[in-house]
Specification:
The complex is a heterodimer of chains A (about 110) and B (about 110). Chain A is mainly β and about 110 residues long. Chain A is built from no helices and 11 strands. In chain B, strands 2, 4, 5, 6, 9, 10 and 11 form a 7-stranded mixed sheet that branches. A 4-stranded antiparallel sheet of chain B has the order 1-3-8-7, with no helix packed on it. In chain B, β5 and β6 form a beta hairpin. The N and C termini of chain B lie far apart (about 35 Å). With about 110 residues, chain B is mostly beta strands. Chain B is globular, with a radius of gyration of 13 Å. Classes of the chains: A mainly beta (about 110), B mainly beta (about 110). At the A-B interface, β5, β9 and β10 of A face β4 and β5 of B.
Chain lengths: ~110, ~110
């Protein structure tokens, strides 16, 4: 079983719609959860971090964490063409180890 | 400007020819890490360092070496590169442990081993 799994893509959504990305993790002791966005040919950039159960909102992005279900999600509201990228879920299970999912590619159709 | 700098950005070389990819950060971060990224596999951690002279293996350390003699630098060494090490490599740094601390990534190094 992979440590971090993301829903397989690619995900295509029309402009203005909500894009929903899901991620599950295997280590119940995981403490920190991150969503990175990666444009083609570029390095990952942090867009959201979440550390406790519930929702965290930042602009058009909302991260949701459910530690009991070992599940973290990212919602992108009012999707824009500039949101077209690969989104990487990352989980910190131990202090010095960060595990990444394979990523979900999102395409926003104009 | 706070940044993580990797060099070279692109390299094509041949099997067995030792190479070093340099990584430097100017944020006084304790933690540094190397990842490789391959299609369908996401980012996989190669080695990480918690501080000067303290390093440990990640998920895919075979064929790689690292050193951390200074806080700002964390070079990745391929002593005898092989074609299966052809990949996109990222160096990253963060302040302290990864608990509650996101990582800052370099621009990446694309290695092709022929």
């Amino acid at each position: 079983q992979k440590e971090v799994e993301q829903n397989s893509g690619p995900l295509s959504v029309p402009e203005g719609a909500i894009a929903s990305l899901n991620c599950t993790y295997s280590d119940r002791g995981s403490q920190s959860f991150f969503w990175y966005r990666q444009y083609s040919g570029k390095s990952p950039e942090l867009i959201m971090s979440i550390y406790s159960n519930g929702d965290k909102e930042d602009g058009r992005f909302t991260a949701q964490l459910n530690k009991a279900s070992q599940y973290v999600s990212l919602l992108i509201r009012d999707s824009q063409p500039s949101d077209s990228a690969t989104y990487l879920c990352a989980v910190n299970a131990r202090d010095y180890k960060l595990s990444f999912g394979a990523g979900t590619t999102v395409t926003v159709r104009a | 400007e706070a940044q993580v700098t990797q060099n070279p950005r692109y390299l094509i070389t041949v099997t067995g020819k030792k190479l070093t990819v340099t990584c430097s950060q100017n944020m006084n971060h304790e933690y540094m890490s190397w990842y490789r990224q391959d299609p369908g596999l996401g980012l996989r951690q190669i080695y990480y360092s918690m501080n000067v002279e303290v390093t440990d293996k990640g998920d895919v350390p075979e064929g790689y070496k690292v050193s951390r003699k200074e806080k700002r630098n964390f070079p990745l060494i391929l002593e005898s590169p092989s074609p299966n090490q052809t990949s996109l490599y990222f160096c990253a740094s963060s302040k302290g442990s990864l608990n509650n601390q996101p990582q800052h990534f370099g621009d990446g190094t694309r290695l092709s081993i022929l």
